[in-house]
Amino acid sequence: MTRVQSSGTEQAWAALGGDPALLGRIGFGGPTGALPARLPVLELARSTVAVCSLAAAELAARRTRGGAGPVPRVRVDGGAVGTAFLSERHLRIDGRAPTTFAPLSRFWRTADGWVRTHANYPHHRARLLTALGLPDDTGVDTVAAVFAERRSAEIEETVYAAGGLAVALRTPEEWASHEQGAAIAARPLLTLERTEGPGTVAPRRLCTLSGSPLLPAAGLRVLDLTRVLAGPVATRTLALLGADVLRIDAPQLPESQDAHNDTGFGKRSVSLDLRDRAGRATFEELLADADVLVTGYRPGALEAYGLTPEALAVRRPGLVLAQVSAWGRYGPWHERRGFDSLVQVATGIATLAGSAGAPGTLPAQALDHGTGYLLAAGVLRALSEQHDDGGSRLLRLALGQTAHWLCNGLPEQPTAGTSETYEPEKHLGITDSEMGRLRYALPPVSFAGGPADWSRPPGRLAADSPVWGITAAAIGGTLLTATGPADMSRPPGPHGSLPGSATA
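The chain above was modelled as a monomer; its predicted structure follows.
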C-alpha cells in the first residue's frame, strides 16, 4: 500500500477544520481503475471517503483511553470506494435490479440545445407534464416532440415555475458567468461553524468506548430528514459508526423503497406529518433528545417548523445541525429543488463528459455520494470539536459546491494505489431482509478497529415507531449501547403507532 497525502484529501480536511498532522494516518491502496472519467471523479471519491474515515477515527480516539490514545490508522481502498459510489447500481433485491431513473428523467433535445429533467417522483412528473400542457398519460415521444420546438431556457423557467425540475445544458464557461454559478464559485467547499444560543453549552463528554468494533458515534441520536441521495448516504454512514439514526418522512411525499434498500442500512424509518399537531409534538419530543439533525430539503422548506439554526440553538442547545441542498442557500437559485443529474447539467459537467455534440454523465452520481461522505465527515468533526469546547454547530454543504470543487479544485485522477484489476464483486455483501435477499455495496469508510459492515439491513419505509433506540428495543428493535448495537429481534410487521405516526 502506498502512503501519500492526496491534494483532494488535504483540501477537504482543511475545509473541515481538521488537524493537518492527522493526514499522515491515511493510507491509500487498491486499484485505481474505478470510476474512469475525464474529470477527477476517483480523486473526489477517495478524498471524501478518506476525510470521513479520518474524522471517524479522530472521534474514536477521543472516546478511548481518556482521549490520550493515538488516532487509528485509516485505509482507503480504491475498489471499495468505486463500488460504494455505485451502490444503487450494484443493489439487487432477490436478484432484481431496481429502476434508478423513470422514463421522463432524461436528456431531451430542444430547439437550441439540450435540457435534462427529473421526474422520478409522481408529483414531479405531474408538474412537468402540467408545465408542458400535456395530459398525465403522455409518453416519451410526445414529450420529445414538444421539447424539440422550444428553447432550453424557456423550458427551464416554465417547468421551474410549475414546481417541476428541468435544467438547460450549459458549458463550464456559461455556468461561470451565470449569477448562481458565480455565487457558488465565491464560496468554500463547505462551512462548519459554531453557533450560540442564550446560554453556554459545556463540552460534550461521551462515554468511553470499549469492545470491538470501535463505534465512534455509539450512543448518539441522529434525526434524518433527508431524501435521495447525499443526505441518506451521510446518515447511512453515521449508522455504520454506531449512531441511532431515525429517518423521518412526510406521509404526503412518496419515497422509493428501492432507494431505501440502498441507503437504509443501520437505520429505522418512521412517518410523521409535521403539519399535524400530534405529529409535530412527537417530532419535538424526538428533537429534545437528538444530538444531530440532518436535513436535505430545499432551503425554505423546513423554516415554518422552526428548524432554523437560530431557533434550534435556543430550543436544543448543543445540537449539530447539518444541512445539504442542491444549489446552496444563496444566489437566485437558492430555493430551487435539484438532484445530482441536474447539477451536472447546469455546471458544465455534462458538457465535459459528453461527446459528438451530445451531453454525457459522470460514471457515478459522484456529487451525491461525495457530498454525502463530506456531510458525515462534517458531523463527526463537529462532534470532536464539541468534545473539546462544547457549543452548537452548523454544517452546510451543496451539490453545486462539490461540483465546483470537482471541476476547478481537484488534481488529476490519482495514481497512488496498485495496478490490480478492479473487481467490484470483492466489495459486495449479501444479507437477508424483510424485502428479500439483498446484494449491496460494503461500506468504504474504514479505520483500524472500526466496523466492516452495518449492524442491520434496511427495513420497510415508515415501519418503525417514532422513538429512540432504547425505547424501540423495549417493543422489539435495536438497542444501542456504547459498545455498539445489541441484536434484538425485529417483528415482521410494523410496530405499534404512537400519536402522530403513520406506518406503512
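Residues 90 and 440 are 6 Å apart (CA to CA).
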